[in-house]
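Summary of Year 1 activities. Much of the first year was spent building the evaluation harness for sequence design. The harness presents a backbone, in tokenized form, and records the residue chosen at every position. We chose the following record to illustrate the format because it has been used consistently in internal testing since the harness was completed.
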């Protein structure tokens, strides 16, 4: 019969279309990276890193399962570059991860690199330069992975991606930071805070509809609070991990973190509502009188109605009580991982080294880049790849066994908070103190409090997972993940200033499996050649004796004995209880560089301590 034949045809066509729809496709972006001029805050024209002559940069959008190819040409002329696709696991494609001297050579001016990988994740990500601290010059933007199967797809009508960031008027290289003139390591103060690379913007909304807002802090330093007047929302994703839809009203979004939230509009179209962002002024050593910390943008229900400024009732950002990300439950109900096979116990310190400048250390090491990218050392070291010595002392290498459960305990010996990011994984958030909320700064005034494995609050049954997690001032966090992604993965503070100071380390996960599975494309070797960086050898560039590290790049020497925490720091980190007894004495505390009225931020000056006698 005609009707049934037609029906069959329709179904056949539908099936074909569906087949095409689910077929993974290749999405290709050609990025010609050049300098352009922009003035996003309306205050200052500056040179920014543009792509194909444009800034704001293009948002990368793919569907889950797609092959993403980004051909990047470095047309900057005077600066090396790269791209890290933040949050992408690069499972099987470690060489596409992006950080210079970790998984690739820097791309020098005039040369090109191709990134090519399969996206098998969902959610909200971003991409940014990961060479010589280049992303604060504007080289960062959203990367969205659409998922036709997301459990919340039928819960919203439209979506918006929104970045927020701090903004500097000076070029990165013109900012003096790690220098003896700045012994307390006071971070450069931004000149502005942007909302989606502009200000005063209106999101056009329709009454009754629900919107998915993908919020991404693409800044280099400062976390921001986010809320919408008279509206609550439901969190459905953090850092690419779906969560049970959870009601919240204020978020704290550190640099590199992402939140997707569902917001349902009111039925009335009489008013427009402020979307409020407030910079976390606790991170700032000084607050210039002309720096605007908070901004109003709008949910615009009605173009012709007033666009009122936010009514901010708190005096200080830290009086806003944000939602605690640790309380989120992942939608996939992945359970708490078992006891770890490997525990990495670390403490953050900020210290003056011998040149008088302030550095950041994990235990006693300030990350210093090797002469050969660590992944290239893995690929050329043969069986010695499992010996962490070949990666040098100052990359702070740690070799992980394949499929080990790894726990990282991160204690904070510093009075500032630090958003730590792990490449290649997300991780379970199993403990943190103090928690987000009114007690977040509780440890900031006294001595640091270290994690005590025999006395901690209960671990969640279904711990929240994300890829960037904030370490509280003088507190700690504990995270777990499975080493099921062979590769070289950087673990570092995402405050770009702190990374410059050395706040990072290198995890070399299953090196023999990396060698088996990975083929670094010729193009990436060509990039090394063009930049004059060796693509073989140990961290010191020795291709003959991988255990001979002479000539390796070293961190700046310790201050001379008598002045210094050398040795004592080493002793302290190996013994957590000694840490509690350590006395912090400010060497440079009286230098007056840090504003005295920073009530909660303890001095970051060199810590000279004596370990307690029971250590
Ligand atoms: C990149 O853009 C610059 C400036 O527009 C142009 O001179 C150059 O030829 C472009 N390079 C490539 C590889 O497209
Ligand atoms: C935003 O609005 C303020 C006044 O409300 C104005 O001073 C400023 O120039 C505007 N900035 C931009 C980038 O539009
Ligand atoms: C990207 O990788 C895929 C899978 O390895 C390969 O088939 C394809 O040719 C690559 N494309 C480019 C442009 O390198
Ligand atoms: C990614 O999406 C799939 C399908 O929607 C879902 O089953 C999976 O749990 C998601 N992954 C994460 C980490 O949320
Ligand atoms: C934010 O900026 C990006 C890039 O310019 C743009 O694609 C996106 O639509 C903007 N989002 C909103 C909510 O306007
Ligand atoms: C808007 O109207 C719909 C339909 O009448 C109703 O279900 C909904 O609760 C209303 N929303 C609000 C926020 O009042
Ligand atoms: C929009 O706002 C104007 C000014 O307040 C008001 O006169 C108008 O009725 C509103 N329009 C709608 C559709 O609510
Ligand atoms: C909000 O901005 C105004 C104007 O710059 C400032 O006076 C106020 O202290 C800020 N409030 C917060 C909580 O940042
Ligand atoms: C365990 O930790 C709690 C909270 O930090 C503390 O009050 C208590 O004294 C600790 N107990 C022991 C036995 O150390
Ligand atoms: C990487 O892929 C392997 C399968 O090839 C899988 O077992 C593992 O869980 C993946 N790891 C991550 C972090 O995606
Ligand atoms: C750090 O401490 C360890 C253990 O005491 C020591 O072997 C190593 O040389 C120290 N590293 C630095 C850079 O001082
Ligand atoms: Cu930091």
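For this record, the design step produced the sequence shown next.
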């Amino acid at each position: 019969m005609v009707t049934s034949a037609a029906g069959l045809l329709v179904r056949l066509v539908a099936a074909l279309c569906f087949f095409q729809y689910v077929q993974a496709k290749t999405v290709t972006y050609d990025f010609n990276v050049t300098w352009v001029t922009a003035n996003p805050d309306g205050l200052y024209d500056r040179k920014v890193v543009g792509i194909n002559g444009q800034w704001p940069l293009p948002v990368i959008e793919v569907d889950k399962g797609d092959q993403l190819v980004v051909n990047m040409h470095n047309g900057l002329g005077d600066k090396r570059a790269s791209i890290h696709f933040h949050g992408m696991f690069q499972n099987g494609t470690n060489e596409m991860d992006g950080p210079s001297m970790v998984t690739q050579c820097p791309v020098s001016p005039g040369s090109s690199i191709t990134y090519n990988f399969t996206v098998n994740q969902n959610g909200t990500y971003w991409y940014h330069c990961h060479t010589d601290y280049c992303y604060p010059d504007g080289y960062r933007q959203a990367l969205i992975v659409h998922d036709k199967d997301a459990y919340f797809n039928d819960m919203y009508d439209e979506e918006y991606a929104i970045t927020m960031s701090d903004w500097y008027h000076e070029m990165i290289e013109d900012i003096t930071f790690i220098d003896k003139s700045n012994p307390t390591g006071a971070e450069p103060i931004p000149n502005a805070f942007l909302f989606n690379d502009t200000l005063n913007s209106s999101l056009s909304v329709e009454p009754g509809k629900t919107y998915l807002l993908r919020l991404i802090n693409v800044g280099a330093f400062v976390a921001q609070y986010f809320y919408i007047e008279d509206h609550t929302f439901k969190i459905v994703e953090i850092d690419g991990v779906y969560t049970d839809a959870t009601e919240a009203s204020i978020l704290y979004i550190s640099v590199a973190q992402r939140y997707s939230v569902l917001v349902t509009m009111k039925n009335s179209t009489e008013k427009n509502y402020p979307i409020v962002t407030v910079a976390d002024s606790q991170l700032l050593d000084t607050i210039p009188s002309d720096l605007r910390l908070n901004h109003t943008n709008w949910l615009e229900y009605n173009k012709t109605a007033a666009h009122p400024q936010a009514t901010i009732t708190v005096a200080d950002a830290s009086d806003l009580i944000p939602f605690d990300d640790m309380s989120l439950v992942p939608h996939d109900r992945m359970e708490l991982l078992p006891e770890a096979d490997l525990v990495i116990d670390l403490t953050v310190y900020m210290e003056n080294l011998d040149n008088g400048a302030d550095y950041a250390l994990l235990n006693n090491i300030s990350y210093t880049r090797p002469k050969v990218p660590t992944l290239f050392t893995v690929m050329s070291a043969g069986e010695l790849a499992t010996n962490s010595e070949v990666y040098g002392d100052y990359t702070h290498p740690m070799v992980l066994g394949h499929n080990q459960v790894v726990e990282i305990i991160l204690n904070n010996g510093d009075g500032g908070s630090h958003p730590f990011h792990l490449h290649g994984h997300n991780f379970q958030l199993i403990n943190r103190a103090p928690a987000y909320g009114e007690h977040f700064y509780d440890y900031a005034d006294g001595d640091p409090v270290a994690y005590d494995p025999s006395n901690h609050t209960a671990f969640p049954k279904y711990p929240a997972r994300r890829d960037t997690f904030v370490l509280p001032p003088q507190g700690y966090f504990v995270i777990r993940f499975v080493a099921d992604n062979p590769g070289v993965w950087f673990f570092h503070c995402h405050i770009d200033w702190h990374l410059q100071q050395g706040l990072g380390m290198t995890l070399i996960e299953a090196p023999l499996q990396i060698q088996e599975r990975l083929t670094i494309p010729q193009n990436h070797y060509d990039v090394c050649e063009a930049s004059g960086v060796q693509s073989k050898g140990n961290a010191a560039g020795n291709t003959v004796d991988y255990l001979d590290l002479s000539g390796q790049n070293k961190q700046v020497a310790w201050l001379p004995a008598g002045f210094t925490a050398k040795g004592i720091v080493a002793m302290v980190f190996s013994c957590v209880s000694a840490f509690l007894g350590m006395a912090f004495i400010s060497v440079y505390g009286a230098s007056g560089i840090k504003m005295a009225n920073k009530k909660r931020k303890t001095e970051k000056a060199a810590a000279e301590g004596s370990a307690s006698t029971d250590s």
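Residues 455 surround 2-acetamido-2-deoxy-beta-D-glucopyranose (ligand 9) (CB under 6 Å). Quantitative recovery figures across the full test set are reported in Table 2.
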